[in-house]
Amino acid sequence: MTVTTSYRRPGRLARFGTLISDIVARPSGAIGLTLVLGHLLLAFIGPFIVPYDFTEMNSGLMLSKPSAAHWLGADHLGRDTLTRTLLGGREAILVTGIATPLAVLWGGLVGIFFGLAGGRVDEVLMRVVDAFLSLPWILKMLVLIVTFGTGIEVLIPTLAFFYGIPVIRIARAATHDVVARDFVQAARARGHSRGTIIRRELLPNVRDALLVEGAMRWSWMLLAFSSLSFLGFGVSPPTPDWGLMIADARGFMSFSPLGVLAPMVGLSSLIIGINLTADALAKALGIDRAQKAPV
Amino acid sequence: MLAMLLRRLGLGAITVWLVSIIIFVGVEMLPGDTCTAFLEREAQGKLLENCREDLGLNRSALVRYADWAGSAVRGDLGVSANGQKQISELVGYRLRNTLLLASGAMLVGIPLALFLGVVAALWRDKLVDIVVSTTAIFAMTIPEFVSATLLILVFSVWLGWVPGIVLTSADAPLIEFFPEVLLPIAVLTLVMTAHILRTVRSSVIETLASDYAQMATLKGVPYWQIVFRHILPNALLPTINVVALTIAWLLGGVVVIETVFNYPGLGRMMIDSISDRDLPVTQAIALIIASVYVVVNLAADILTMLANPRLRTVHMRKG
Amino acid sequence: MTSAETTERDFLAINDLSIGFRGRAGTMVPVLRNISLTVQKGESIGLVGESGSGKSTLALAMMGYLKTGLKVIEGSASFDGIEMFTQARKSLETIRGGRLALIPQNSGQSLTPTLRIGAQIAEALRLHSSLPETAHSARVTELLSQVRLPDPSTISERYPHELSGGQQQRVAIAMALAGEPEALLLDEPTTGLDVTTQAHILELLRDLARETGMAMVYVSHDLGAIARVCDRVIVMYAGEVVLEGSAKQVLRDPGHPYARGLLASIPQLKDTHLPRALDGRPPAPGQVGNGCAFVDRCVIATENCSAARPELTQGPSGAKTRCHHAERVNEIPLIGHREVSQRNLPETISLNLDDLAISYARPNLFEKLTGRENQATATVDAITIALRKGETLGLVGESGSGKSTILKSLAGLLPPLHGSVDVADGTPLPARVEDRSASQLRQIQMIFQNPDESLNPRQTIAQILAQPLKLYFGLSGEALNERSAQLLEQVRLGAHYLDRLPSQLSGGEKQRVAVARAFAAEPDLVLCDEITSALDVSVQAAVLELLDDLRRENDTSYVFVSHDLAVVRVLSDRVAVLYQGRLCEIGPTKDVYGETSHPYTEVLLGAVLEPDPDFSPTLSANDAVELSPPKAGCPFQRRCPKRIGDVCDTVIPPRRDFADGHTIWCHREDF
């Protein structure tokens, strides 16, 4: 018998395309994805389109109102607010953009490993995870930052470490769900090695949960990053950063409300964009997000 | 049932113990100690030796941990590095002030979240749901310092209704925190309500689709009786744990809010202690917050156990 | 049509009713098409059809209820002259659960988990009876004893999860009776229950119908259950009525090709033929063409059948049938198409189970320290069976009998407490799958109950089949493709299935893929765990036929686990009957199903229903659910109708050997 099968599994690209079109099918998902992509684009091309140098101070412009030359006015040092707002997300996106995949990766791997191991080891790990989660994030972060400084070489591993811990929980729960299913039992009964079972049976099914979790972690991390900046433990001046800009402009908001409003819009639109996308992604993948607690 | 309770209590105690180790080890790993922080540039030679001798820092880490943990169990949190005051005294008023914030937010937020969540679910995809759900996403995702600053801008700077900053001292009577405390409570309430509301909404929607909700309809039970007798008791059970997690999470969020409003609570004290490298105070606050987290979660577990007949009664059938 | 045209004596009437949902294209996709039917007072009718035929939707429509997303396209439903779909909510609330009550499909999930049983029944009383509040609790007790629940006052204090499936179903019946209904709708009320429980519930329903004169609409895929309770039967296919007539007309000599095919696909105790499968699958909603919905699967279809939709007309037998060729349906045979051959099996042993005991309970530290670990009664105990090469061994028993547990242990997924399993050459088979050699692994394959669970939803069929082929034979590239395609041909699926995901296949097709995956290993022994119970009966017949073909071609042994005695009979050379994890009886199939049987086997066989209106089951034991085996004596001691005395409670029954290796473990001597 001659077999003339077109042995093609649906390509990765095609499946990714379906996912994107599922997300965009909902208005909230379309808005969210547009916001996220817009911010990413801005982060890349920002330096080439801004009207002024973000460090350029002009004492004549201090706290000036919007004008044709300076659409959003200027801050207390006479720097152009529009320029600084447009550039204000670059550092945040860079740091969280690297830290998020790292967090999902290490948290995911540890979670899967212990989810599979089960038994006493698993019990002990969950207590440690619980213990870490019971400490407020800001305390954990601050202790490290105060000691080691606020450079991105500190912020990235710190964020990745602490935000990977809740991922352990999610990955472990997803692993438990999948392991209980018959197709994993079937693979075990056939005698596949543990590695094959993880790679072929487990990962493709845990991946969805981790994808949604990653999107959520990204939004929480941005929140943490900008909060740290706001408190003065993040980006150091004169780098433009939304959190820092809001902190600086707060004292002058009665004279120049745009100084706080502009970075607020920048930051909020990115975070809301991520959340809307994550919601739509969760629905497209059949995972409900609202059931999850904010930890 | 009793065994389950004891097990939960035991696990909670283990978690607190692990937290104490994490805190202690974390602080140990930091370069420098209380004496180097306290003496700053003079931290060398004889002076440093004497200081360490006085505070018992020369002893081995294990002994110091046992000493610290042992005292903490008895309610003695040690003395602060700056000013050498009893930490328990320092913390007392601050904890009270933070609890004022948190309880204010809970008192308003939890009923509001339950109400709005149920309403949004029952009128799913109607205008009221769309408004409530969209607002919730905004309230939940925008950082606290952004919403706080926005509220100050609107209600304090523009409208002038309430002061945007708290100038009351930490040990003042609670009544003196009014009306300044209203804005921080509002910010906390906003975030908390949004989180709980979303859980309530999806839980009610799930229950509405259950077989027993359909059965109740086909049994001829009037709609509002179905909602109150059949839907809500089942839908709200799983939200108890989320409420607990949200409360516990507030304790972290409160740090930022207290800083924005200059509110003399535990959170701001924590930031100050970290900036000043006052390690004993940092350790004490960390332990307190972690314990509150564990206790709140424990309470939620026990409450769920008591309210859920599946957990309350003996399991006759497995699976 | 309007309700005015409904004649006064039609108690329940459906007029030209079409129900559908809005499809992706924005047009209405019908799930029920132009249904008309009537039910008179005191009459009981059966609605029969396979999953997706729209029978449950129709039953709920009689109450004026539509599941979310469904809409009435045209037509009406009325109850005693009251138009249900135009009724105000208030008036519907009075009728539902009062004059017209429903007994749901899955009572376990239809009872509110946070309310006590008593409170849920009292709620129905409060809404639908004139009794004063003070009399409610007495009435609740009365209702619970009317549905023959033992100790009604205790039950009413319980929560739903504390009851067994059969008890929950009885509670649902009691709840329906609380409103003193004039008509009762039953939506698959016995699906998922054990055979004896099902038989008891059906008898109860029959009695109730007779006592109270209620009309009943009984929805089921199970023709045996329908035959037991219904006067008139309506067969549904793809959202329309295809056959309607008296129970005798429909079940004895069905006048529609689909109904005949359905009847022929049911395995029956008295018929040893292999049931005849219905090829193909029903059209999805919206996919029905202009012609007859059944045309693609019909063996007597002509060109005319795809051109015009047949009307429901009087057929030769007197029943109304929707077929262009009603006079030719006799060409479709009603009995199975081939006898499962009596095979001469070699005496070579392929697997030897010796005194196998399995327990799910893991002793905790405390029990280990105090030496109490061995005191718990094992879930499965004292299983000694020698399986011959090429033999099919059936394992039967109700839920909790330990039959699946034994399979899991043989597959190496659940190590036994003690006892051993030896393979053909007498070498012991390691208990844990991790310790088995590559060839031992290959020789034993398992097929699971539900293909939705046992096939990875993220893998294509090609990837699923590649797993064993790569693992055991190291196939790759073109050889792998060729072998995969060949396997699909063997299970009557084409090579074009290779690219698909499991979610794109029907239930029967998925289970075929699972079968192909097992046979990819070229195994000596295949463990089948309830592999047809998640399938429709016509699909089940196809899978049974496939298994029979494959064992002929490959000389494979099966251990075939099922709760359905008729299904087990079809394939098995030998059958073992289990109760509470202990062997009651084992022997050649014809002997076990014959005259001389263990009391438990008799109880089981007596409860099996036949799709025949004149058949009545024999109920000789109660249907109480036992959760753990007794501490000593015979496992069946508590329910046995032929109990001798104390000896049954204290002494393990002796084995009694009959001809041909037929063995019964029982204290009785009068076999």
Automatic annotation (TrEMBL), chain A:
SUPFAM superfamilies noted in UniProt? MetI-like
Which GO BP terms apply? transmembrane transport
Its main subcellular localisation, reduced to a broad class, is membrane
- Transmembrane portions of the chain: 30-52, 92-117, 137-163, 218-235, 255-276
State if rRNA-binding is listed as a keyword.
no
Domain ABC transmembrane type-1 spans what residues? 89-282
**What UniProt keywords apply to this chain's record, in alphabetical order?**
Cell membrane, Membrane, Transmembrane, Transmembrane helix, Transport
Task: Give the UniProt subcellular location, in the record's own words.
Answer: Cell membrane
The record gives the membrane topology as: Multi-pass membrane protein
Family matches, as InterPro entries: BP-dependent_transpt_permease (IPR050366), MetI-like (IPR000515), MetI-like_sf (IPR035906)
Annotated Gene Ontology cellular components are: plasma membrane
PANTHER family with a match to the protein in the record:
OLIGOPEPTIDE TRANSPORT SYSTEM PERMEASE PROTEIN APPC, PEPTIDE ABC TRANSPORTER PERMEASE PROTEIN
Give the family per the record: Belongs to the binding-protein-dependent transport system permease family.
Return the protein name: Peptide/nickel transport system permease protein
UniProtKB/TrEMBL annotation, chain B:
* ABC transmembrane type-1 domain segment(s): 95-300
- InterPro entries registered for this protein in UniProt: BPD_transp_1_N (IPR045621), MetI-like (IPR000515), MetI-like_sf (IPR035906)
Keywords, sorted A to Z? Cell membrane, Membrane, Transmembrane, Transmembrane helix, Transport
Q: Name one Pfam family in it.
A: BPD_transp_1
Keyword tRNA processing attributed: no
One GO cellular component assignment for this chain's record is: plasma membrane
Under SUPFAM superfamilies, the record lists:
MetI-like
UniProt membrane topology term: Multi-pass membrane protein
> Where's it found, cell-wise?
Cell membrane
GO biological process: what's one of them? transmembrane transport
Q: Does the keyword Transmembrane apply?
A: yes
**Chain ranges passing through the membrane:** 9-27, 99-123, 135-161, 181-200, 235-261, 281-307
Q: Which family, according to UniProt? A: Belongs to the binding-protein-dependent transport system permease family.
| Descriptive protein name | Peptide/nickel transport system permease protein
State the organism named in the record.
Sulfitobacter brevis
TrEMBL record, chain C:
- Return the protein name: Peptide/nickel transport system ATP-binding protein
GO terms (BP aspect): peptide transport; transmembrane transport
**Gene Ontology CC annotations of this record:** plasma membrane
Q: Which residues form the ABC transporter domain?
A: 14-263, 351-605
How is it placed in the membrane, per its record?
Answer: Peripheral membrane protein
Domain of life (superkingdom): Bacteria
Chief subcellular location equals membrane
Instruction: Report TM segments.
Output: none
Locations listed in the record: Cell inner membrane
Tagged with keyword Nucleotide-binding? yes
Q: Which UniProt keywords apply?
A: ATP-binding, Cell membrane, Membrane, Nucleotide-binding, Transport
For this chain, the family text in UniProt reads: Belongs to the ABC transporter superfamily.
Pfam families this protein is in? ABC_tran (PF00005), oligo_HPY (PF08352)
InterPro entries reported for this sequence? AAA+_ATPase, ABC_Ni/Peptide_Import, ABC_transporter-like_ATP-bd, ABC_transporter-like_CS, Oligopep_ABC_C, P-loop_NTPase
Query: Which GO-annotated molecular functions does the record name?
Result: ATP binding; ATP hydrolysis activity
